[in-house]
Amino acid sequence: MYNRKEFLKRSGGAALGLMLGSTLSAACNTSSRVKINGSIKALGIQLYSLRDDLPKDPKGILKQLAAFGYKEIESYEGAQGMFWGMGNKGFKSYVDGLGMKIVSSHCDFRADFERKAAEAAEIGMSYLICPYVGPQKTLDDYKKLADEFNKAGEICKKNGIRFAYHNHDYSFRQQDGQYPQDIFMQHTDQSLMDYEMDIYWVVTAGQDPIAWLKKYNGRFKLCHVKDRKKGAVPQKGEPNLSVIVGTGSIDFKTILAAARAEGMQHYILEQEAYEKAPVECVKEGAAYLNKLVF
């Protein structure tokens, strides 16, 4: 069974401190670069944020999320599958009744993907997303992955939905003089797939999310809104340093305004490390983001 938690444990390497400097400052303090005039119309949440609580009471957790003001759901493949034991139609019916919509799910695109795409399309989902592939030994390996992404995109397109890839920090660190993320962007067909920018991991790699959003205008359609501990300097093997959204170092007001200008459509909170109970973390994050004007 695909286990995203194990993937995340393997992905926690950090950028060198010298890389951080000006690019991290740009990501966290860019208040004059983008016009501020909007808000999130339908805040989403990645259910992995509640990975320990969700399997015990899927319906109860979803009900709480609706009460916190979440409108969109991004699922993932846990032990009960991405529809949490309800089946695709049962899950849709339940979240519809709560005033929410499932728009996407992380999943293993190498296993039974035709069925997953058909089930997602059947209930009106927009995306299936690869959450992690891990650092590769060579740049050619990233090109081979891009070919796999295109094939997954073809399956999704055939079913009337889209495929996307969710980044970690490794693709935003140079390898043999190139950024693996550039290879992904340049070797995948825009007609077949989009990208989900995890803002936290871009910043952790010492990169400026706004620069990447502008470089590949219109290709990042979803984003993970995940904050980073103030004053944290990336170091090799660091633990996940995400904090409650709105309490960390990332300037979401400016970054999300830039994202909107570059074609972003879905804003999805994800919480990976906890300062208090996970449910309280995502409740406070929702309160911050639902009031944010950008």
TrEMBL record:
Coiled coil: none annotated. Gene3D superfamilies: Divalent-metal-dependent TIM barrel enzymes. Residues 109-291 form the Xylose isomerase-like TIM barrel domain. The keyword Isomerase applies. Pfam families: AP_endonuc_2. One of its GO terms (molecular function) is isomerase activity. Keywords: Isomerase, Signal. Residues 1-26 form the signal peptide. This is Sugar phosphate isomerase/epimerase. It comes from Niabella pedocola.
